[in-house]
Amino acid sequence: MKASVRAACVLTAIALAVLASYLTTLNIRTHTKLTDIIKNTQHLTGDANRGEYVANMGGCIACHTDLENGGKPLAGGGALETPFGTFYSPNITSDTTAGIGSWTESDFIIALSVGIAPNGSHYYPAFPYTSYSVLTPQDILDLKTWLDTVQPVESSAPTHDIAWPISIRSTLLLWKALFFEPTREVDIGNRGEYLVNGPTHCAECHSSRNWLGGLSKRTLSGNKRGPEGHAVPAITLADLGDWTKEDMELFLEVGITPAGDFAGGHMTDVIEYSTGRLTAEDRSAIADYLLSESNRP
Ligand code: HEC
Ligand code: HEC
To answer: Per the omega criterion (within 30 degrees of 0), is the bond before 165 cis?
Structure first.
C-alpha cells in the first residue's frame, strides 16, 4: 500500500472514531436529560394561565403564526429565512392531525428538551430547542397545558425550502452531535440568567454561528448574518457600555433605544410578542443579568 493511501485510511479511521465518540456522548447526554426531566415532571400538574406566560417568554406565538399573511395564532406557516434556506414553522394548535393535539406530555417534553419528534426524527435548530432544553419541568408542563387549550386550526404549513444535503433530516444527528448539549445547565435561581439563556433565547439571534450553523461560545457577541441576512448587534456587558438598567427595561418593553431610535427587524417581534408581554419584574431581571459581570463571554 502506498504511504499516501495508508495515511488516508488512518485519517478516515480517526475521523470515524471521533465521530462515533461524539455520537455516543450525544446519546448518553440525551438519555440523561430525558430520564432526569421526565422523573422531575411526574408529580407536577400544569397550569394553563402560567403556560400562556411561558409561551410569551419563549416567543412561540411570533414564530408559529404566519404574521405576514394574518394567519391564525400558532397555526404555523411563518417563514424563517436563514443562510440554509427558508423554514416554515409547523402548526402547533390543538388540532389532532394538523397540529399537536394528539401529543402526550412526554412527546412534548422530548421535543422541547432534546429536539426529537414523536416519530423519532430530529428537529432543525430553526426551532430553538437548543435554548428551550433548559426550561424547568414546571414551565414545560404549564406550556403544554396551555397549548392544549389553544383553538384547533386545520391547516398545515408548507414544507421547508432548504438545500440538499441538509434537507435530509438524518443529517441532523451529526449536527446535534457537534453542536447540541442537552445537559447544558443554567442557574435557575438567577431569573435573568434563566430567561436570557433559556426561554427568551436571546443568543439564538445575538450570537454568531459557524458555517454549519453551530452557535458560537462567545454568547451575545453579535451576529453578522442573522435571520433574513441582517446583522444583529452584540449585547454583552462591554457592548452595552452606556446603557442603564432603566434604558434596558424600557427597550425590552417598548423598543426605544437610549439614542431615541426604535428597534427594527426581528427585534420588533421579540418585543411585541415576548419581552413586552413579560412582567416588569422579569424585564428587570433580564436587564440586571445583561448589565452584570456574568454577561462577559
Ligand atoms: C424562531 C422560530 C421558532 C420559535 C421561537 C419557536 N419555534 Fe417551534 N418550531 C419552529 C420550526 C421552524 C419548527 C420545525 C422544525 C423542523 O421541521 O425540524 C418548529 C417545531 C416545533 C414543534 C414540533 C412540531 C411538530 O409538528 O413536530 C413544536 C412542538 C414546537 N415547535 C413548539 C414550540 C414552542 C412551544 C415554542 C415556544 C416555547 C416554539 N416552538 C418556538 C420554529 C420556532
Ligand atoms: C429573532 C431574533 C432576535 C432575538 C430572539 C432577540 N433579538 Fe435583540 N435584536 C435583534 C435584532 C435584529 C436587533 C437589531 C434591531 C435594529 O436593527 O434596530 C436587535 C437589537 C437588540 C438590542 C439593541 C442593541 C443596540 O445596540 O441597539 C438589544 C438591547 C437587544 N436586541 C436585546 C435582546 C434581548 C435581551 C433578547 C432576549 C430577551 C433579544 N434581544 C432577542 C434580534 C433578536
So the answer is: yes
